[in-house]
């Protein structure tokens, strides 16, 4: 029996997936690539069994998923790839209509929390798929994530750049968890041995990746637009470990999201424990 695994099409997932695919037996794994919002939907509908997925997704359907331990995509301070590009300083954004990428489900809500809860602003938000320069002709500020944000920050433009990982850390002193590895509970029940092996393969892949950043950076096609040293710096700034402090940051995010009405309630965070607690 095989497992269908979502693979976020961003550089932040490259180290772990490269180590998994180069060093483990992946014959029982079928990979589906996409942007987070698209993979989140496929996971929710059962088209995917396991996926690094937007952390907010768990809060929407806590009965549907378990969280794989020891894995996440997070930052303790700046993250470099979740960025608000703004034609005016942040302090002048109260009341503005802000553009937001269609690819994100977590960071769009982090932006709401930063502007409404931390700053006390009132904003309207619109989704946009426009490239950065055009989007900034339509909106005073635009949120991008992933490779689009990395590329936007590398380009020369007349704008301010705010890193949402940094703004969260300044306000809370806690890590921010952008993505978690979710497994569907019905998959754990139907394929317990396969899920146990995959959970362990992913953690081993993460540890292998930590030792291989320069090698992986020298091979990726994205080196056409990002310098391998800059890529290694980016991977080093991302925190892939899920510690007690990360879980504390995650729970704080969920309670702010619930207070804003984005989540119906603060979910209980339940980790996969080899099939127990399904
Ligand atoms: C740090 C990042 O985290 C991401 C942000 C996500 C979101 O906002 O929904 C989802 C997955 C992660 O890839 C990033 O994309 O740059």
UniProtKB/TrEMBL annotation:
<comment type="function">
    <text>Catalyzes the dehydration of chorismate into 3-[(1-carboxyvinyl)oxy]benzoate, a step in the biosynthesis of menaquinone (MK, vitamin K2).</text>
</comment>
<comment type="pathway">
    <text>Quinol/quinone metabolism; menaquinone biosynthesis.</text>
</comment>
<dbReference type="InterPro" id="IPR003773">
    <property type="entry name" value="Menaquinone_biosynth"/>
</dbReference>
<comment type="similarity">
    <text>Belongs to the MqnA/MqnD family. MqnA subfamily.</text>
</comment>
<dbReference type="Pfam" id="PF02621">
    <property type="entry name" value="VitK2_biosynth"/>
</dbReference>
<protein>
    <recommendedName>
        <fullName>Chorismate dehydratase</fullName>
        <ecNumber>4.2.1.151</ecNumber>
    </recommendedName>
</protein>
<keyword id="KW-0474">Menaquinone biosynthesis</keyword>
<dbReference type="InterPro" id="IPR030868">
    <property type="entry name" value="MqnA"/>
</dbReference>
<keyword id="KW-0456">Lyase</keyword>
């Amino acid at each position: 029996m095989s497992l269908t695994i979502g693979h976020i099409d961003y550089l932040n997932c490259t180290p772990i997936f490269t180590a998994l695919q180069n060093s483990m037996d992946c014959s029982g794994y079928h990979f589906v690539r996409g942007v987070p919002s698209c993979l989140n939907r496929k996971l929710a509908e059962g088209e995917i069994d396991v996926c690094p997925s937007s952390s907010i997704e768990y809060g929407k359907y806590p009965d549907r998923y378990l969280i794989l331990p020891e894995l996440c995509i997070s930052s303790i301070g700046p993250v470099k790839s979740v960025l608000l590009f703004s034609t005016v300083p942040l302090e002048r954004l109260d009341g503005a209509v802000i553009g937001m990428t269609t690819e994100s489900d977590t960071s769009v809500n982090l932006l709401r929390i930063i502007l409404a809860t931390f700053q006390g602003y009132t904003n309207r938000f619109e989704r946009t798929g426009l490239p950065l320069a055009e989007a900034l002709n339509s909106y005073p500020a635009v949120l991008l994530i992933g490779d689009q944000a990395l590329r936007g920050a590398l380009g020369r433009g007349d704008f301010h750049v705010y890193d949402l990982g940094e703004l969260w850390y300044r306000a809370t002193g806690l890590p921010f968890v952008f993505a978690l590895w979710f497994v569907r509970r019905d998959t754990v029940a139907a394929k317990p041995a396969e899920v146990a092996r995959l959970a362990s393969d992913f953690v081993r892949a993460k540890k292998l990746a930590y030792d291989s950043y320069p090698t992986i950076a020298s091979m990726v096609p994205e080196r056409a637009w990002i310098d391998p040293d800059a890529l290694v710096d980016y991977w080093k700034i991302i925190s892939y470990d899920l510690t007690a402090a990360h879980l504390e940051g995650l729970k704080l995010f969920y309670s702010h999201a619930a207070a804003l009405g984005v989540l119906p309630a603060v979910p209980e965070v339940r980790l996969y424990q080899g099939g127990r607690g399904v």
